[in-house]
Amino acid sequence: MAYQTSSFRRFPAAFAIVAASALAFTGLIATANPAYAQSGGDYRCAGLAEQAHVAATGVEGGKQASAKRFVSTGKKLCEAGNERAAAKQFRAALKIAGVAEADSESRMASR
Where are the domains of the chain? Predict the structure, then answer.
């Protein structure tokens, strides 16, 4: 009768291989950039921010101060990484200015 090595003795080597693979995969995922970050930035913090800024400077009186305040808050939210809340601020500035949002990329960014 031949002596067979139990599977329990091979377990530490198999576990080490699986653990190393998991760590490598986790590192790969952690360092990967989202697709929008590779393509030049998020629309909400780039195009929409610029549109709101231009609209806010074109408004007269008290509406201008209010619109600029929304734009400033939106820019700070973008710096903090909260693009969704920033987009709400930029859209509020556009609404105060009475300017419609450019429809080209806005629907893509809101999804």
Answer: 7-32, 41-109
pTM of the model: 0.57
Q: What is the pLDDT of residues 35-66, one digit of tens each?
A: 444 445 678 898 999 999 999 998 888 899 99
- What would the 3-class secondary structure string for the chain be? CCCCCCHHHHHHHHHHHHHHHHHHHHHHHHHCCCHHHHCCCCHHHCHHHHHHHHHHHCCCCHHHHHHHHHHHHHHHHHHCCCHHHHHHHHHHHHHHHCCCCCHHHHHHHCC
